[in-house]
Specification:
Shape: flat
CATH superfamily: MetI-like
Oligomer: single chain
Number of strands: 0
Radius of gyration: 21 Å
Strand content: under 5%
Distance between the termini: 58 Å
CATH class: Mainly Alpha
Pfam families: BPD_transp_1
Family: Belongs to the binding-protein-dependent transport system permease family.
Keywords: Membrane, Transmembrane, Transmembrane helix, Transport
Largest sheet: none
Mean pLDDT: 87
GO biological process, one term: transmembrane transport
Subcellular location: Cell membrane
Number of domains: 1
Helix content: over 70%
CATH topology: MetI-like fold
Length: 235
């Protein structure tokens, strides 16, 4: 069996050589995760804004529900999406099972509650801070929301990056609805699991290195945005 150092060296060779299979897997992972993140933001940001600003019966229950959905088990989400998209399911006629679209749907369901809950917290804190100012200016609800979104833009981008980080690391749900099909639905996390079981540790390690680099990049971006937001707040 190859030693760790040899496997790591082979992994870096694959990364630096631009291996075709590796590039295909990474590109599909990014396409699926970025698409899911954008959809989750389209759903989660408005929902978070409504929960942060609006006052209506059942608001507290809605907040509790959204917070609880942050902990959705990925395999359960994958199973539910599978049942809906399978031939016997209500959406089976669409033929989406074992396609990247099914994976995007599963990831969107997983990270939309995260985006909604975190954006609600950000906007609610800003609303509490500026409530008197908004009242004195007699701003409408739409103007208030626009002001909050602008002031909290750096924090909201951080929320989106957190959602992307969660999406790109997902394995359970995308394995169930995507099937881990070579050249079709194989992403980094599912490929790592498969190649490890096959004993192809160099490719698994190469994918793991890229996944770690993405995680570091996302965290660096979050840290940079926080520093930028701090500078703007003290400007």
């Amino acid at each position: 069996m190859q030693g760790f150092g040899e496997i790591l060296a082979l992994a870096f060779d694959l990364v630096l050589s631009g291996d075709g299979d590796l590039a295909e897997i990474v590109w599909l992972s990014l396409r699926v995760s970025i698409s899911a993140t954008l959809l989750a933001c389209l759903i989660g940001l408005p929902l978070g804004a409504v929960l942060a600003i609006a006052r209506f019966p059942g608001r507290n229950a809605a907040i509790v529900l959204v917070n609880a959905l942050m902990g959705l088990p990925p395999v359960v989400v994958g199973l539910l999406v599978y049942l809906h998209l399978s031939r016997a399911g209500p959406l089976g006629f669409l033929g989406l099972l074992y396609t990247p679209t099914a994976m995007i749907i599963a990831q969107t369901i997983l990270i939309a509650p995260i985006v909604a809950a975190l954006s609600r917290q950000v906007l609610e804190e800003l609303h509490a801070e500026y409530a008197e100012t908004f009242r004195s200016l007699a701003l409408s609800g739409r103007q208030t929301l626009a002001a909050l979104l602008w002031d909290g833009r750096f924090a909201l981008v951080t929320v989106a990056l957190a959602g992307f980080g969660r999406a790109v690391a997902e394995v359970g749900a995308v394995m169930i609805v995507g099937g881990n099909i070579d050249h079709a639905t194989r992403v980094m996390t599912t490929a790592i699991a498969l190649e490890t079981s096959r004993g192809n540790l160099a490719l698994a390690m190469a994918l793991g290195v890229i996944l770690m680099m993405l995680a570091l990049g996302v965290n660096a971006a979050v840290h940079s945005l926080r520093l930028t937001a701090t500078r703007w707040s003290h400007a």
